[in-house]
Write a structure and sequence with these properties.
Length: 344
């Protein structure tokens, strides 16, 4: 694939109602966790990371409002980008996930249009791959940018786990962080959006996604097979080979790990197996879910926005980053990001 440049970002998270405020809170390790209106089976209030919104918006209406706000922010930050000229990929929860809103794929774009009072580009689409959705959306965007000559595409991730049906099933499976389960995550909701263009199209400093790789993990979080990290190893090696580059050109990691031991163990195993032959005494790992909670499909664009903000403001550990994502059913994706000067 050709490099895709991340031009601007927008966010609505439990720690900020814009991309700069969310990224600043994540940088300071501020947690958005608070008691929710849901109780666990023991009668204790569940903790969650909820985005504050005006009024009594709930369910699909809240998802649409968050997505519209994040999308508007990234478009305004990249003027003269106009919604009617920008194909939008909406990254949402994978089909079959407990608590997924009925008719989500059809209803969300229509609800976003109604919220913005504007018409979406006819090539806009919905990508239902959960946490790996952003990686699949970047592949879709690169094709449109290259083949159709579109000036921009937008990738919007929006999701919520703060739904009764979702929380009930997750608690039954031992996935939630509670007073009796320390190996779990804090559920949340969020929306994040990035505007992307062809890499190298304009002069100046750009954050580009230079390579994407995918893999499949058989030892998923709820399986009893021994975890080796095969799927993530496959994704990381494919992403590095697509650039091509080595771990010497990557200074830090952005991951979707959300508090469960599985995610960090998988990352450690996969990197340990992939990094052979390269001496890296320091390889920082950023996992913003500690601050914003487990936000499903919103995490991918959130990580891209965080990388963009950190690069532009000079607190990223270096110009190269590895971003990796994974779903409960075994889909794995890795992205190689690079911040540097380009010449049109």
């Amino acid at each position: 694939m050709r490099p895709v440049a991340v031009v601007s970002s927008g966010m609505r998270t439990a720690v900020g109602l814009s991309s700069p405020s969310s990224c600043a809170a994540i940088r300071c390790a501020i947690s958005g966790a608070a008691e929710t209106g849901f109780m666990d089976s023991g009668g204790e209030w569940l903790m969650g990371c909820s985005v504050p919104v005006e009024g009594e918006l709930r369910g699909l209406e809240k998802l649409a409002a968050m997505a519209a706000a994040a999308l508007s922010e990234c478009l305004v930050a990249a003027l003269p980008a106009k919604l009617k000229d920008v194909p939008v990929a909406f990254c949402v929860a994978e089909k079959g996930r407990p608590g997924r809103f009925q008719g989500l794929d059809e209803r969300l774009p229509a609800a976003v249009q109604a919220s913005l009072k504007k018409t979406l580009h006819p090539k806009s689409c919905v990508i239902a791959h959960g946490r790996t959705g952003a990686a699949h959306a970047l592949v879709w965007a690169e094709r449109l940018l290259s083949a159709d000559g579109a000036p921009f595409c937008a990738v919007v991730g929006v999701d919520t786990l703060l739904v009764g049906d979702s929380l009930r099933v997750l608690e039954q499976r031992g996935r939630l962080l509670t007073s009796v389960n320390s190996n779990g995550f804090i559920p949340g909701d969020a929306a994040a959006a990035v505007l992307v263009a062809r890499g190298g199209k304009s002069k100046g400093m750009q954050l580009t996604c230079d390579g994407i790789g995918f893999g499949t993990e058989k030892a998923t979080v709820e399986s009893e097979e021994p975890l080796r990290g095969d799927g993530l190893v496959e994704a990381v090696r494919s992403a590095l080979a697509a650039v091509p580059c080595t771990f010497e050109q990557v200074q830090y990691r952005l991951v979707d790990a959300s508090g469960e031991q599985y995610g960090l163990k998988e990352a450690q195993l996969a990197i340990g197996r992939s990094i052979r032959g390269t001496l890296k005494p320091d390889f920082p790992i950023w996992h913003p879910a500690d601050c914003i909670g487990e936000v499903g499909a919103a995490i991918g664009p959130c990580l891209l926005g965080l990388a963009l903000e950190a690069s532009r403001k000079g607190y990223a550990p270096g110009p190269g980053a590895l971003c990796h994502l994974g779903t409960d059913d075994g889909d794995r994706a890795a992205l190689i990001l690079k911040y540097g000067e380009t010449k049109a």
